[in-house]
Amino acid sequence: MSNRPSESELASQKSEKISRVGINRITSEDAFQSAMEVSRNFPFSESSMFDASSVFADRVPKTYDTAGLKFLVEFLSETIAMFNITVFRPRDRDEPQYLLLYTILSKLALLSLGPGSLVILPAGTDDPFADESAHLDADLFEEASSDEGEQRWEDEWAEEYRKSAPYGRACHVSFCACDGILQVVRSLLSSVHPPEMRASRNVDLETAMEKGYKVVMLVEPVKHIIFGYDIWQPMATAIELAILNGKKDPVTVLLTDGKEWYFASVQLVGEISKQGLPRPTRNEFRACGYRFRLFACKSFLCDLMYSFIKRESPKATVFAYLHDVLYPGVDISQVAAQAERGSDALKTLADEWVKACKVDLDRSQKLKDMEREMMASEQEAKDMEEEEQALKRQLQQQQGQ
């Protein structure tokens, strides 16, 4: 009998750790296929995924409202310009691209400050020893300097993971295995954030999803894209998150170095063993015992930091594509109205945040005013006392004469 979780079990396993394969990145086709048990019809090459003739590619030409595109470019222009002049961008670092994508996504999140709010979750490295079931002997670290010790560490870690892997399988990848991943999640609740989420922002993705959030986009910024190396980790992560999202909410991967942009959407169809699933389509594949659709695969060549344009620039199209992913079904012509509503909502939130600061400042000023008044009163009393003493001395002198 399969020990894979059913969709109903996924919903009930609130305290279950999101599964992982450990601290090693998936950086090859073979590792991806082995770890995720992916069917052979998955498009393992860049061309089979993104060429115009591919069944996985976004082959429907999109036309956008020109006024909407202009407003969107203007809306993001200050963010891009500010990043361009204030952030050093060493060529061997991923962090500048991470900051660039964060600034763009946070600006676009302004368009949804209301019901269905977008929230950015910056992922960090998952600590494989944080789970109580995965503790290893400390002496392994002392022996890791030798080849034999290092191999023993890897073997024992793998064995511990196999014992503790959720769902009894080790084919899933941690959504936190990449230091630089950004995840955009959307609240499906009726308020900006549910009360327990408003009370504390110190939550992880698992907690956020338990509270009614769905992953919309998984963004992996890298310094220089090597497609056959960089695509597998975010794609594996997207597969796992698509399972947790359920059938209605796809996860879109964005792999970019700020010059090349690769978009691909993954959506859960259902568990292979379940009856009553729709007939497979040409853009389906299998992984981890589930069926998925891979669609809307689109790539762009677009250097956001290069302002001199010799021919038609895809910058506006890249921004529009980001908008389409984050706000499916919302026409680009509505961006101006979204921005106005978002700005009003942000002003309200900012006023709430600064209110406590102003109260503290007012209280501090009152204390300072009271201190000055007390010092002035003390000085006045001292002056009066000195004046009284001077009068007494003067009187004594007059009496002595």
Give a quick precis of the structure.
The chain has 401 residues and is an alpha+beta fold. The chain is built from 13 helices and 7 strands. Residues 1-5, 10-18, 124-145, 157-179 and 189-195 have low confidence and may be disordered.
Describe the structure.
With 401 residues, this protein is of the alpha+beta class. The chain has 2 domains: 324 residues, no CATH class; 71 residues. 46% of the residues lie in helices and 13% in strands. It has 13 helices and 7 strands. α2 packs parallel to α11, α4 crosses α5 and α4 packs across α12. The longest helix is centred in the C-terminal third of the chain and has 66 residues. The chain is elongated and about 120 Å long. The N terminus is likely disordered.
Distance between the termini: 121 Å
Overall SS class: alpha+beta
Tally of distinct domains: 2
Report the strand count.
7
The arrangement of helices and strands along the chain is HHHHHEHHEHHEHHEEEEHH
List low-confidence stretches.
1-5, 10-18, 124-145, 157-179, 189-195
Sheet-strand content, in percent, reads: 5-15%
| Main sheet makeup | 7 strands, mixed
Strand order of the largest sheet: 1-2-3-4-5-7-6
Q: Rg from C-alpha positions?
A: 30 Å
Give the helix tally: 13
Shape: elongated
Biased composition (Basic and acidic residues): 373-382
Biased composition (Low complexity): 392-401
Region (Disordered): 373-401
